[in-house]
Design a protein that fits this description.
With 249 residues, the chain is α/β, with parallel strands linked by helices. It has helices spanning 12-20, 39-49, 72-81, 125-148, 179-188, and strands at 2-7, 30-33, 53-55, 93-94, 99-102, 105-110, 113-114, 122-123, 155-160, 192-195, 207-211, 214-218, 221-228, 231-236. It has a single domain (2-242), classed as Metallo-dependent phosphatases (Purple Acid Phosphatase, chain A, domain 2). α1 (12-20) packs parallel to α3, α2 runs parallel beside α3 and α4 (125-148) packs parallel to α5. It binds fe (ii) ion.
Amino acid sequence: MKILAVSDKEDTKFQDYILKNIEALKHVDFVLSCGDLSKNYLEFVVDSVRKPFFFVEGNHPTGNKERDLTNYYFDKVVDKFYNNEKHFSFGGINLHSRVEVFKDYILVGFEGCMRYNPGEHQYTEKEMARFVRKVSKKIRIRQIKDSLFARKKKKIIVVSHAPILGVHDKGDVCHSGYKCFRKFLARFNPEVWFHGHVHFEGQQSEQISRVGETTVINVYGVHSVEIVNGKIKTVSNAKLMKGLLNKTA
Ligand SMILES: [Fe+2]
């Protein structure tokens, strides 16, 4: 399973990479966004890769602005690789508070972050816990059905904007993590948990942690993730150019 994840930061190096290596992207199974990216950027990525797209909104929503038809990268990629045929395939599946099945995986999502002002997509711990309970119930129903019909047990992938309490979070209210995420992780042991919202700069090029059986990835920029027999290989931002995407699984 190959996943292309984007979040928070528009990466022009990645856009250049796509223009030069579009063939490499055909091995991607799906694209996901953890939020806080412009509609133009997302549309460029999704229309380049042309694979299923799952997303959650951040606290800076994608918005409904008219797509900028002069987007340099978008026009380049459709002119170069798709005979100028524009698909405008921004449409994807909003995972917030939902459970979606994709191949052998259950995908779930939680939008927004801890409430710090009256803005959109902000939730108190109590409000987020309600979404977590709703999703947990849906997962249990699916798991019971799978076991009743002797179907293969599906692994779980989580896409959130905010971090988990104590994992990549920060001390201020806006960037603090949710306790209910931590409980969800302990209960369901997701294979991978993607989040955004927490920006890091300087020497640090990536932020990936192992919590119990879960690999937690702060996407901030671009990550390609390959899961083969339960083993997870990740390639992030700067290293992407030499990355995993162009190798077949
Ligand atoms: Fe954010």
